């Protein structure tokens, strides 16, 4: 069964990654805008992509990890110096972004709403 993690903010994300030592399976990370009081992200595309990603997650190998990262509020994200944008490990340009950690596989923006693309990303090569 896929191990799921939920993280909020850049410091918590960095701490999680530092403590993630030699996972047995792939690590997939979904970066999304943080949730509002309604329980949904401020990012409309993130709201649309989340159920697609969750449904496709069944394609991931059982010993893999899925990390849902809330990057912060809209103002924090829009700042060009947002650490999620400037960190070379993430190099985020748009939300949502779904990637395989440490690998080139990456979906951005509307691509994360495409079930076929998301399923392909979760399938082991």
Automatic annotation (TrEMBL):
Pfam families tied to this protein: TXD17-like_Trx
Gene3D superfamilies assigned to the protein according to its UniProt record, in alphabetical order: Glutaredoxin
Biological classification of the source: Eukaryota, Metazoa, Ecdysozoa, Arthropoda, Hexapoda
GO molecular function, one term: protein-disulfide reductase [NAD(P)H] activity
Keywords of this entry: Cytoplasm, Disulfide bond, Redox-active center
Domain Thioredoxin: 8-124
Any one Gene Ontology cellular component term annotated for this protein: cytosol
InterPro entries (alphabetical): Thioredoxin-like_sf (IPR036249), TXNDC17-like (IPR045108), TXNDC17_dom (IPR010357)
Protein name: Thioredoxin domain-containing protein 17
Subcellular location: Cytoplasm
């Amino acid at each position: 069964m896929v191990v799921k993690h939920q993280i909020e903010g850049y410091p918590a994300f960095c701490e999680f990654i530092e403590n993630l030592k030699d996972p047995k399976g792939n690590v997939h990370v979904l970066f999304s805008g943080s949730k509002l009081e309604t329980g949904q992200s401020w990012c409309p595309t993130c709201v649309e992509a989340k159920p697609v990603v969750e449904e496709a997650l069944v394609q991931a190998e059982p010993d893999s990890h899925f990390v849902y990262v809330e990057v912060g509020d809209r103002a924090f994200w829009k700042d060009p110096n947002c650490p999620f944008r400037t960190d070379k490990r993430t190099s985020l340009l748009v939300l949502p972004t779904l990637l395989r950690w440490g690998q080139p596989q990456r979906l951005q923006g509307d691509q994360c709403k495409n079930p076929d693309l998301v399923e392909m990303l979760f399938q082991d090569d």
